[in-house]
């Protein structure tokens, strides 16, 4: 995006389509291996620097990866980036650590099982070398801190532990690192504090025989600690969490409400959007996704099951039931069918890095919206148009309700989203770009690449040259190679590296990384 | 391994447990850090204990928090003020950890130590520390540094002062909003130490930057700075620099900013003087009272009394009172509720005539509000009403309101009104109470909700205290004792509870003649729960009544209960008997 007004129509050469290459895979399946339900990845998120990647799975685990190819340069990575010449390397990651974020629970009051599945992960501000992230399942959000801890070996105690333990009937259950000291007479030392009153007089020079324990630390280990739990604020399933640019608040959204939290306060949240009608029978629309603007702390967007995106301004009022802006595309006349409303439902929205554009994903398309233009999307990309005749089957097997995520590249020039048969698609979003690539989450991503170049179809609006509806390279011929499309292998989750041409995507339990 | 003498065991254990695996034991040791320091002596504390603490700073936050707190009062243990320097390094590391509460505590302790340090040490150690933190790689250190400038600045030589002001202004433009927020929060404190000449130039330009920050959360805190800065400036400077800012803020796009203004505005009135208050602040405040956002009106309504106290009565009547009238019928119950809790304070400001003429109708309409919190807030300030207009004028409207609250569907509302009954009784006097409220008090003893019955029993006791035993004998005791025949055992239990509360107030004579027989009688109850409660009540009566009564009446009854078939009854009866034995032994 050149980000300019419509007036500035200097012909910017659209970037060349990218040649995607396989980089890495984590948790690759061997042939015939059954996928365990708990191992299926349910969330992917890069941190702001792109040095870390987190995935969450249905088993409630969060796995962290760290970038390895920049480590050698140390702190000079920024300088290298500034030099603006390609480093002959692509982002590479290695497994860093994992932890159990959520456990299955049972809500006894409502007789509801609460799955441990991680719905979303969001990275927070790094501090003192410790990583912070938020993870959520359907009901509970948790704030995690992951940090290197020194493994300590303590010696030179005042009390001879080995001797004392021998006298004690209760053997110390802890290991030898720091034995619980027992008094020679077998009593428990805690008792003796009472005799240690402040009146106890010490000689002015102190008692020379006392010594401080010696602490030697040789190695470190990564420890994840849950710092805060934000619970009991959602009656419905949480579908999104998003950090505010102010660094102190975040939102959580469920089907009907959006709550605002302070990261430091876990027992209180403010309801800022409530779409619950007085009578639940009047319910026509639910919240499907919500995200804060990347730089304006007062602005947030949320999408609905009716295909609209609302932008709200937290400055206007405490309860933002009235939106500041509404983005929706009028239904083209004569196209209405039973499925129109279902496939219009937006499953994910993402702000571009500069905050000017919002990318949305509905069942059949990706749409890019300019927040300064609420008459319609700037561009629409057909993700899998060949499925349109099959909507009936997709409805029958519930696939039509699958929630695909979408992502923008750091420079905002490309967008990506997933599809079925472990395919995902990358589109060029800059004006005039015809880039539309289909890739497969496998070691040979370009296998499915179709050679026919895509052409922009006729413009919907005569005055706005940038409003271009691009039909992708789809035709039913895509699967003419005999592969029937497999609705069970769907690629729902993917993330674009914030600064590199690199995509991480999840195919069941495997995490594939690609670069260009 | 050292051999430790027997008397040193406790302290040796304490030291060892600084590194125990169990966090509770570590916490305990840290909490006794001063004892450890005294045992080691001042020199070893400086040379060993403090470095030891500095090195072991990757502990759990609870431990770090305790450490930060203890170090703040550690000067005596390191050898006095001349050695205070040694405490700075561990606190410096603690003020850059990730956990906010640890950092805040470390900054607090650093300030406490810095305030006692010698000037030379401040220049040599404290100021460099502030500069290091302000240049910290992570935002956490920079956040902490903002809270230390007001300690460092006064002792700094001229060149260093200039540098410190420059650093502070850089912190106010930091990339991280957290740092800018901290700088905005601490600006008032820092400004108070800066010379007047720099105040108008450097500090005001910092302030102006903060007021234009694009983060709402920063601007919010700049509002707080307004009042603090206003008090430091000369009135004319305040008018020219602060007043336009606050008037601007009062019309900010963000309701949160306006909310802050509504909360702070009255503080600024004094700083700017009467004329600008009349011409600028009153109109701003009136706008806030009529704000679109209910939250802002709530904040403004809550400050209405404080604001009126600063104004002269004419202005208040002319400008504020009309808004108050509007607010009393506001669409938001929370606004009305906030108004109800402060409105009575306006009465002394307005004087008797204006109060009766203008305020009373508002007051009465709030007393009839459909929302119970509003009514409760009015009733809770009843003593203030009484002072101004007297109870006669009010009683007609008051009573229906009280009765309605007393019968409210929500038990929490009933509970709240019960708690105000003794206050009401003292304000309304015996006569009014007997006529109107006595029956209600009895009715609550038979409430369906335990908390209400419990509160009602307490209420009966407080009434007896208020009006004296004689009155209670006539108006409370007979009605209460009558209820012991209630067919439901839970209600009988409430009465037993009430008796145990009333007995100390009524004195031994009435207890023996009226209360005790009822309790003894209840020991024949068919419900074991009543019987063991009888045992408990009897135990509580033992110290009140005469020894002979214990021997003659209470003990036989307890002995009988101690042979009851029910195990709980036997348990409590035996317990009561034992306590009566103890009373006998001691006398």
From TrEMBL, chain A:
GO terms for cellular component: protein phosphatase type 2A complex. Residues 452-463 have a biased composition (Low complexity). Keywords: Repeat, WD repeat. The keyword Repeat applies. One of its GO terms (molecular function) is protein phosphatase regulator activity. Pfam families: WD40 (PF00400). InterPro entries: PP2A_PR55, PP2A_PR55_CS, WD40/YVTN_repeat-like_dom_sf, WD40_repeat_dom_sf, WD40_rpt. Residues 435-463 are annotated as: Disordered. Belongs to the phosphatase 2A regulatory subunit B family. The B regulatory subunit may modulate substrate selectivity and catalytic activity, and may also direct the localization of the catalytic enzyme to a particular subcellular compartment. PP2A consists of a common heteromeric enzyme, composed of a catalytic subunit (subunits C), a constant regulatory subunit (subunit A), and a variety of regulatory subunits such as subunits B (the R2/B/PR55/B55, R3/B''/PR72/PR130/PR59 and R5/B'/B56 families). Interacts with SIC/RON3. PANTHER family: PROTEIN PHOSPHATASE PP2A REGULATORY SUBUNIT B. This is Serine/threonine-protein phosphatase 2A 55 kDa regulatory subunit B.
Automatic annotation (TrEMBL), chain B:
Residues 276-351 form the Phosphatase PP2A regulatory subunit A/Splicing factor 3B subunit 1-like HEAT repeat domain. Pfam families: HEAT (PF02985), PPP2R1A-like_HEAT (PF22646). HEAT repeats lie at residues 10-48, 164-202, 203-241, 242-280, 281-319, 320-358, 359-397, 398-436, 476-514, 515-553, 554-587. The keyword Lyase does not apply. It comes from the Eukaryota. GO terms for cellular component: cytosol; nucleus; protein phosphatase type 2A complex. The keyword Repeat applies. Belongs to the phosphatase 2A regulatory subunit A family. This is Phosphatase PP2A regulatory subunit A/Splicing factor 3B subunit 1-like HEAT repeat domain-containing protein. The lineage of its organism: Eukaryota, Viridiplantae, Streptophyta, Embryophyta, Tracheophyta.
